[in-house]
């Protein structure tokens, strides 16, 4: 018969509860503080990078009109318009940085400690005309509504996680304080070692029954924190990468409309709307993708003309390729390419592949996108004259978070998740994706999709004919 523990007085139970709660809260505070510190630092660097990109984009939108603005009043109007459009105060100085031509900055606003200033040289026809200074408030981030929403969502989720963790610790510690007697010193020493070492090392389960319960609870808590941290990191990385591709297409269309390259027609507005709707669906799916490797995808298969789908995506990237002076060519299939696929998923796959080709192809290069129908399968290829991939990297190019050129910045090199997600989506369609490349000469990405022998449209026609 098991020996019963002696009854604990109320003061002893309270003392044990206070001790356990203190140790647990120290652990939570350490993990949460470290988590917030790393996140705040990464977010601050990302905001600075985004501010620099925003400044170059602002100058790009008015550079052509600056060439024809000879009067100071005309230039002032241009800068005022750009400052209002981008919600950014600016200053425009001469080449010597001393002559202040235009000042749209409030001195009181500039004195804020959270202000981040960027300087962009204004070069017109190869001649330095001056410098454009832009000022961003890193705390408000009003220049990027999407960044504000993302930060608010993070704050809400972190608070919810903290509250849930505190409640869980409160319940666990209350039960342990009622059960524990002589094993409290050993348990406290083990829990304190976690705080001192600042490493979530699993504790070895040993000792009495009560001590084993406490150690198991602490290990479970640490595992929960590790999983939540891993999910959060992967979610942030996937969102950053996956949202960039459709956003680039939207910005390209909008820039083309603003610059007069594309007319403001229902067709172009519809294309932008399609990309925005795809962004919304991507945000919903990213959480599922980040929960585990090899996530199961729910496909909404439809009868799709793959050739037309590839051509639409190709046309969406034309503006981006022209900006880099890249010869972008589309080679249509000689036979119909009707497939049962999820059109949104296919757009996600092909957009990733084409975007990577444009990103890694130098100015003046050549990219060819096309389709082939052979041996009961449809092949989509994207061939570029970019930097190429070394033979030892070809087997790992589809691994998540893997980048062949680790010296690239986050902005130009990406986070290495696009191709891994594309591979998972292709395999969900019972297809395969691979790469053929030679370092210094370029790469060719192939996507093979099995074509069903009888399409839905053909089945309907035969049914009507038989009837």
Automatic annotation (TrEMBL):
It catalyses: ATP + protein L-histidine = ADP + protein N-phospho-L-histidine. GO terms for molecular function: ATP binding; phosphoprotein phosphatase activity; phosphorelay sensor kinase activity. Keywords: ATP-binding, Kinase, Membrane, Nucleotide-binding, Phosphoprotein, Transferase, Transmembrane, Transmembrane helix, Two-component regulatory system. Pfam families: HATPase_c, HisKA. CDD domains: HATPase (cd00075), HisKA (cd00082). Signal peptide: none annotated. InterPro entries: BphY/WalK/GraS-like, HATPase_C_sf, HATPase_dom, His_kinase_dom, HisK_dim/P_dom, HisK_dim/P_sf, Sig_transdc_His_kin-like_C. It is a multi-pass membrane protein. Residues 238-453 form the Histidine kinase domain. The chain crosses the membrane at residues 14-39, 161-180. It is found in: Cell membrane. Gene3D superfamilies: 1.10.287.130, Histidine kinase-like ATPase, C-terminal domain. Its EC number is 2.7.13.3. It is an enzyme of class 2 (transferase). One of its GO terms (biological process) is cellular response to phosphate starvation. PROSITE patterns: HIS_KIN. This is histidine kinase.
């Amino acid at each position: 018969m098991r020996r019963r523990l002696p009854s604990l007085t109320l003061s002893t139970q309270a003392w044990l509860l206070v001790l356990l709660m203190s140790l647990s809260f120290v652990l939570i505070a350490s993990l949460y503080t470290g988590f917030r510190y790393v996140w705040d630092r990464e977010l601050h660097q990302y905001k600075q990078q985004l501010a620099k990109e925003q400044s170059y984009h602002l100058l790009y939108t008015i550079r052509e009109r600056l060439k024809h603005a000879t009067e100071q009043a005309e230039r002032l109007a241009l800068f005022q318009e750009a400052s209002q459009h981008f919600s950014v105060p600016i200053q425009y100085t001469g080449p010597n940085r001393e002559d202040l031509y235009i000042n749209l900055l409030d001195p009181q606003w500039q004195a804020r400690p959270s202000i981040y200033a960027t300087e962009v040289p204004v070069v017109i026809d190869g001649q330095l005309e001056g410098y454009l200074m832009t000022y961003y408030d890193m705390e408000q981030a009003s220049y990027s509504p999407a960044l504000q929403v993302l930060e608010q969502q993070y704050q809400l989720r972190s608070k919810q996680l903290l509250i849930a963790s505190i409640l869980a610790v409160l319940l666990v510690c209350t039960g342990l304080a009622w059960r524990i007697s002589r094993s409290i010193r050993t348990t406290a020493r083990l829990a304190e070692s976690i705080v001192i070492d600042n490493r979530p090392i699993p504790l070895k389960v040993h000792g009495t029954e009560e001590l084993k319960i406490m150690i198991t609870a602490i290990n479970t808590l640490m595992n929960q924190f590790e999983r939540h941290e891993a999910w959060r990191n992967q979610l942030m990385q996937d969102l950053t990468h996956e949202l960039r591709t459709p956003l680039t297409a939207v910005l390209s269309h909008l820039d083309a409309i603003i610059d007069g390259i594309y007319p403001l027609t229902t067709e172009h507005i519809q294309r932008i709307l399609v990309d925005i709707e795809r962004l919304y669906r991507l945000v919903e799916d990213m959480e599922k993708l980040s929960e585990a490797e090899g996530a199961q995808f729910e496909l909404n298969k439809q009868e799709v003309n793959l050739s037309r789908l590839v051509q639409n995506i190709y046309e969406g990237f034309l503006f981006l390729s022209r900006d880099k002076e890249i010869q972008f060519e589309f080679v249509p299939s000689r036979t119909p390419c009707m497939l049962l696929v999820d059109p949104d998923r296919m757009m996600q796959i092909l957009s990733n592949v084409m975007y990577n080709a444009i990103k890694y192809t130098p100015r003046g290069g050549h990219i060819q996108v096309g389709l082939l129908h052979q041996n009961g399968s449809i092949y989509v290829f994207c061939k570029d004259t970019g930097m190429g991939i070394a033979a030892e990297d070809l087997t790992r190019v589809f691994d998540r978070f893997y980048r062949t050129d680790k010296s690239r910045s986050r902005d130009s090199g990406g986070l290495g998740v696009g191709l891994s997600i594309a591979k998972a989506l292709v395999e969900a369609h019972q297809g395969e994706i691979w790469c053929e490349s030679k370092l210094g000469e370029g790469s060719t990405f192939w996507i093979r999709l099995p074509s069903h022998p009888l399409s839905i449209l053909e089945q309907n026609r035969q049914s009507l004919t038989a009837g």
